[in-house]
Structures are given as C-alpha cells and as structure tokens.
Amino acid sequence: MIIQLVFSFDTASWEGLFDRLEVWRSRGTADGPYEPLHDVSWMPARLPPNTPGSPPSPPQTGPSAVLVGKTLKFLIDEMVPVSVTFTGTDPLNYGQAATQIQAQSNGLLTAFVLGSALIVQTVEPGIKAILRCVGGDPAPLLGLATTEPSSLAYGRDARIVLKQGEQNYGFTDPHGDTSYFYKARFVNSFTGATNDYSLPVQGIIQSGLDISNLVRCYIDVVDMTGNAVVGQELLVYNAFNGQQVQGKVITGGSVTKLTDSQGHAEVFLARGLLVSVSVGGTPLARQVTIPADPAIESLNLLAAASGNDDLFTVQVPVIPFAVRRTL
C-alpha cells in the first residue's frame, strides 16, 4: 500500500543546525520498534538487516559449510522468487556461496563476505527494494534467518534535503499501511548530530492527486484547563458538485478524524474545495474553502479567518499577557 505523509516544521527549528531530514517507521505500535527509511545515501535491501559495511577488496572467504545440492530461496520486492542451488565440492566457503548467489540471481542480487558474515543484498537501491529470505536448508548454515523480523529487509532512500523557506516535506512509503506509525528527525550531515524525534503520526493512502494539490488541514483543541483533548471528533464533509482538481472529479463525501494525545487531528484536502467542518460534542460548524494558493500548504480549520457562516462562531479573545500595573 502506498502511503503519503507530510511533515511540517518551522524553518527556525532547524536552520543553522541541521540540513537533512530522515523518516523512521514502526510496523507495530506508536511506541515502536522503529526502522530507518533514510540513510546517508540510497541503500539496497540487505540481509542480515542493518549490517554495516561495504564489499571488501580483496574479497573475503569466511567460514565453510556443507551446501552442495541444497537450495536457498529469496523473494525480491515480495513478488520475484530467486532460487540458488549450490554446486561444486563440499565444503564451500561463504565467498564461494556468495559468488553462486550472485551468478544465479539473474542480476537481481549481489553477495559478499564481511568477516564471518555472508551479506546478500538487492541490486536496486531505495525504499522500494525489499529482500526476504524465504527458506531452504542452506539458510541457517549461512547465517540467514527465515522468520521475521530478521528474514526481511528494506532498502533506504537518501535523506531529504532541508530547504530554506520550505516548511512542508512530503514523503511516500511504497510499502506502507494506514496502521503504521512514522516519525522524523533532523540530521546534520557534516557532524552526524540529530535532534529529538517528532511525535508519531500515521499516513494516508496515496491520493490520486499530486501532493502539491493537497492542503494539510488540522485542528488543535484543549479543555478549559489547557490540557489536550484526546479523541475529539473532527468531521469534514464535501457535497458533490462535479468540481475537478488536476483533471479529476471530486466525488464528495465525509471524513472523520479523532484528535491524538496532543489534541491534534489533521486531514489532507484538495485545493479549492468548499467543505463543512464540525467538531463532535460541540455546536461548532462552519464552511471552509480550502486555499487554491500553492503557497499555502497548511490550514487551521478553526482559525477565525479560515471559514464563515459559523453556527457557533469561533471566538478569538484578546487576552493581555502582561498587565501594566504602574504608571
């Protein structure tokens, strides 16, 4: 499933300190464990996962195992099977096994030895690449797991370059799911310094529209004591009127989101739409036109300037933060 995310940051939070952005993913809960989706450069999917190092020169041989006549099985991108049947005279060292894996993969895999470890990786780099060790008798003899999580590896994209004046950074996970959680952090590519991770978020299924034709629309709510309200319902409705964006007709309908532990809920909406916005449990309801201006990348749906015709007008009181008590 292709999942879209947009991370929004104030330029002041990174300018002069960091120059890259990296995204991490949890296929479990919001608490993790998380796996990196970015690296210093485009990286292939590699087994065993997260093994550092490059092919040594000259090649290494590693330990030996009884492999002849046995078949090792891989699955590339979850759809292309690769079977390697070892030939020769036992025992074969890992270096010889690596050569046969590479030769029998039809140009889809490379393999080499680092110390006592056999490394197998995809030729294709980037997060689109997936490599799974499916099984076969040689797998444990070569130090390869056949059950998750150690049997599955994803490639990584190069870190996203931060740009002066740009607040929103889109990211697409080609192997995502709406149940997955994502977080991001800044990186200084020169010193390796990083900041704290952002709060975990969940993505949306990739839209038929380019991200440039979507606006991140959100609400932030607290109770009368200033604490975030968790589970507050945000309802957005659009009546079908045949409106087109990017040559595609918007069918209309409704979307419901619940606020998270920070009292925050958000949804991506197509530019130019007229939508009705309401907050569950309150009499607040209003109409909002999603900005068509491409310079506007995010919109507070409850801001006083965002909508009109409120059933219950959004109030923005003037609260003095420092009262003068002397002449």
Description of the molecule:
It is a single chain. The protein is elongated. The protein has helices at 94-103, 138-141, and strands at 3-8, 20-26, 35-36, 38-39, 44-47, 64-65, 71-76, 80-85, 92-93, 109-114, 117-125, 130-135, 152-154, 157-158, 160-161, 168-173, 181-187, 204-205, 214-220, 233-238, 244-245, 248-249, 253-258, 264-270, 274-279, 285-289, 298-300, 307-308. The strands form 9 sheets. It has a 5-stranded antiparallel β-sheet, with no helix packed on it. Strands 2, 3, 15 and 17 form a 4-stranded antiparallel β-sheet that branches. The chain has 327 residues and is mostly beta strands. It starts with a strand and ends in a 19-residue tail after the last strand. Strand 21 (244-245) and strand 22 (248-249) form a beta hairpin.
What does the radius of gyration come to?
26 Å
* Portion in strands: 35-45%
Strand order of the largest sheet: 23-20-25-26-28
User: Helical amount among residues, as a percent range?
Assistant: under 10%
Described by strand count, sense and barrel closure, the largest sheet is:
5 strands, antiparallel
Number of domains: 3
Order of helices and strands: EEEEEEEEEHEEEHEEEEEEEEEEEEEEEE
Which whole number gives the mean pLDDT? 88
**Quantity of strands, as a count:** 28
Assembly annotation:
single chain
What is the CATH H-level superfamily of the largest domain?
A: Immunoglobulins
Distance between the termini: 65 Å
Helix run count: 2
Given as residue ranges, the uncertain stretches (5+ residues, pLDDT < 50) are: 311-316, 323-327
Given the C-alpha coordinates, what overall shape results?
elongated
Q: The CATH topology of the largest domain is what?
A: Immunoglobulin-like
